[in-house]
Amino acid sequence: MREDEVRERAFSMPLTSPAFPPGPYRFVDREYLIITYRTEPARLRALVPEPLEVDARQPLVKYEFIRMPDSTGFGDYTESGQVIPVTFHGRAGAYSHCMFLNDEPPIAGGRELWGFPKKLANPSLRTEVDALVGTLDYGPVRVATGTMGYKHRPADRAAVLAALQEPNFLLKIIPHVDGTPRICELVEYRLEDVALKGAWTGPAALDLTSHALALLAELPVLEVVSAVHLVADLTLGLGKVAHDYLATPHRQTVKERTYDYAA
After folding, report:
1. Is the pLDDT of residue 259 over 70?
2. Hey, what CATH class is 19-169+186-238 in?
3. Catalytic residue numbers?
4. Staple partner for 21: which of 16, 73, 112, 248, CB 3.0–4.6 Å?
């Protein structure tokens, strides 16, 4: 294979059998259960990377269960994780802290293209009689359970649509061959061409369990604030670099760093 052919074909790995196709990526009947809860502000400040900022007066986390039955190139899968409301240079948005899903192509694509913090696990979202039930299992361990009364009241469609259209932020990290960071960027992306098909609210509850490799409970649930159940069609827009951490003068090698995951 010639060098120019490699350059032309290189958008994902492996070169001759990419894990996912090129975009755009359209999602049909994407279903969310989003439970917003209050947590400890010091934990948020410790986990959200600068230059993103959190509001210590409103230390909120959005826990999401998402069913994606029809997604271009990625197939049929479910996702679950924590998203944190933030501001970036005065603009409101959301930072994806952790995500768990049960399908390899969107894990690879999400990490390689945007920098989504995706790991393999077993989430689910389903209707059980009169309740919407979301669960997340990491191996045999149940690490998250969310419940909501099924379609108790219509939600504010304008507010839901505005939230879906806010900017989203990700920390994209790709290492060099020597283990040092080759890419370390804050990525901004948006959901595009959103068609909101329905949105509802109701009573909700959320339980998180400690796990060494699924650190959801490090943002403890102090109080459930609200919940929304929605269905939408949308396109996952490609991203742009909002901040390049390696362009700053404070570069360190892996050997020079210390890590404290419990901070």
Report:
1. no
2. mainly beta
3. 118
4. 73
